[in-house]
Design the sequence.
């Protein structure tokens, strides 16, 4: 099944680059322009200048030139032998202290149709074009794709734990207070055991679908030009692999904000929803959250409609097969998702927001922050917002195993992996 391997990571030489805490950054797609300026102000050698270059069409070439300057000047240096990189995150979420540990390696790229590496949600074409242009000029994976695997006998997790008993080789603390630790492992026996353990495993992408699809396209592009062949490094992608049963896995919901709909009428919307949902008004946001938590714990399909000034409506699906009746060819796993219920029964059928509209974010935008979903309505003039419960990890794997994809922005794995601890140089 999955083919994994070690690699010679490209890493910061802190004697020349400075404090590693000033050199790393979050994933490029959650960084605002203002935040980017702040990272560069802390240290002009921050990885953000490579991962998220600024300027016009020439910005990708500039990133490639800058990368060469940093490698030639010893700011970034390549490890001398193949290794895997154990990666641990210590953080607080849902009022609990948690720890999550996996390992970074290379995974051989395979088309989704082969059923080895499996996606779970749709992607947006604009992001893939941006990443392709960057890879074309830098020939690098600057950040890891976050992926999951099933470890029924706990053998892989035990091996990973055994490699990370001492002090980490690298450690940084991000702006949210999450501690990111990394250990480099070059023991050929360990790497061989890990490689063998994955010959019967599938890999489920948690976060990084755009980058994976881009890597596939980039490798095919190189092969068509005669610049690469199937066994080359460009046929692999750097991934962080985590056991799907890891107690530290946290998935936050991504809420939906509806804006600029013509003729928006909340009373008509609620009347249109009544055939599908039991609708209950709650007095405030706190009560809404309590109700949603209880419905989630009880396995109910539900979300909240927020229309401003603290006014909330809890919408609980009446018939569990409602989406299946509309989409008989889709799996039970897909049809049972809260986001599938919302998108197919409400946003498409009642609001008239089709899939193209959603993909282009014309009338629909996304946030994982509850306060932002509420403020968008109360202050920014949005029509309404939908507050969702998180998708379960088991639901993610079930949809992926069925060969299907959730709507885009269905999950938000927390915390995010930092960029800059290790880079994969393809050529």
Sequence:
């Amino acid at each position: 099944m999955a083919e994994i391997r070690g690699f010679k990571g490209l890493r910061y030489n802190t004697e020349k680059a400075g404090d590693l805490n000033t050199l790393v950054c979050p994933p490029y797609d959650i960084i605002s322009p203002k935040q980017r300026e702040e990272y560069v102000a802390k240290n002009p050698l921050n990885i953000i200048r490579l991962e998220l270059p600024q300027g016009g069409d020439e910005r990708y070439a500039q990133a490639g030139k800058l990368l060469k300057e940093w490698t030639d000047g010893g700011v970034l240096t390549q490890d001398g032998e193949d290794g895997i990189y154990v990666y641990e995150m210590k953080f607080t979420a849902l009022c609990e202290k948690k720890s999550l540990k996996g390992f970074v390696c290379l995974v051989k790229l395979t088309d989704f149709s082969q059923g080895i590496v499996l996606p779970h949600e749709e992607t947006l074409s604009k992001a893939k074009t941006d990443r392709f242009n960057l890879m074309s000029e830098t020939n690098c994976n600057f950040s890891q794709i976050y992926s999951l695997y099933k470890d029924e006998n706990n053998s892989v997790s035990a091996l990973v734990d055994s490699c990370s008993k001492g002090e980490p080789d690298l450690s940084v603390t991000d702006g949210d207070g999450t501690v990111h630790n990394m250990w480099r492992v070059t023991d050929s026996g360990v790497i061989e055991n890990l490689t063998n353990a994955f010959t019967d495993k599938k890999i489920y992408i948690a976060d990084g679908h755009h980058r994976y699809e881009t890597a596939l396209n980039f490798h095919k592009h190189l092969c068509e030009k005669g610049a690469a062949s199937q066994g080359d490094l460009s046929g692999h992608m750097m991934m962080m692999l985590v056991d799907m049963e890891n107690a530290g896995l946290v998935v936050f919901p991504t809420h939906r904000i509806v804006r600029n709909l013509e003729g928006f009428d909340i009373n008509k919307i609620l009347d249109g929803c009544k055939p599908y949902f039991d609708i209950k008004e709650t007095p405030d946001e706190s009560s809404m959250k309590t109700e949603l938590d209880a419905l989630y714990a009880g396995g109910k399909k539900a979300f909240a409609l927020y229309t401003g000034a603290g006014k909330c409506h809890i919408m609980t699906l009446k018939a569990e097969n409602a989406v299946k009746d509309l989409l008989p060819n889709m799996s039970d796993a897909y049809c049972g998702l809260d986001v599938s219920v919302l998108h197919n029964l409400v946003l498409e059928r009642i609001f008239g927001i089709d899939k193209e509209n959603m993909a282009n974010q014309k009338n629909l935008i996304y946030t994982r922050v509850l306060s932002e979903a509420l403020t968008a309505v109360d202050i920014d003039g949005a029509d309404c917002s939908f507050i969702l419960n998180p998708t379960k990890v088991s639901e993610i794997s079930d949809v992926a195993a069925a060969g299907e994809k959730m709507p885009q922005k269905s999950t938000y794995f927390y915390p995010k992996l930092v960029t800059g601890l290790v880079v994969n140089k393809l050529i």
Q: What stands out?
A: The chain has 16 helices and 21 strands. The longest strand covers residues 96-108.
